[in-house]
Design goal:
Strand order of the largest sheet: 1-2
Structural class: mainly beta
Number of strands: 8
Strand content: 35-45%
Largest sheet: 2 strands, antiparallel
Helix content: under 10%
């Protein structure tokens, strides 16, 4: 009988914490760790070494359906519709004789 390291098995429903929020999975969670490398170049010798860079890990799961913290996953959905596209400017004094309108330097939302 072969021994199995239980720490290497990831399966079943679980909690995933991301930026202080907790999301629950419906079934298994798939982890896809990768290793990005870059080469060290020197003018005299060319490539002399390859070193490890980032180590991103892609996590894939089906959420169970509780969505209390969607603003963490989709931060741009929490903004009022149109506020990023058409900002409003506070207008100051209107001088009809000069055909001018004073505009403040700050945005108001």
């Amino acid at each position: 009988m072969s021994a199995t390291n239980l720490a290497n098995i990831i399966g079943g429903p679980c909690k995933v914490s991301f930026k202080g929020s907790t999301f629950r999975s419906k079934a298994d969670v798939k982890l896809d760790p990768t290793l990005e490398t870059f080469s060290v170049q020197i003018d005299l010798y060319g490539e002399v070494d390859t070193r490890s860079g980032n180590q991103p890990c892609k996590i894939t799961f089906v959420p169970e359906g509780r969505f209390a913290d969607l603003a963490v996953l989709y931060p741009y959905l929490a903004v009022a519709l149109g506020s990023l596209v058409t900002p409003r400017w506070e207008c100051g004094a209107v001088v009809a004789a000069d055909d001018t309108i004073a505009v403040a330097n700050t945005l108001s939302r």
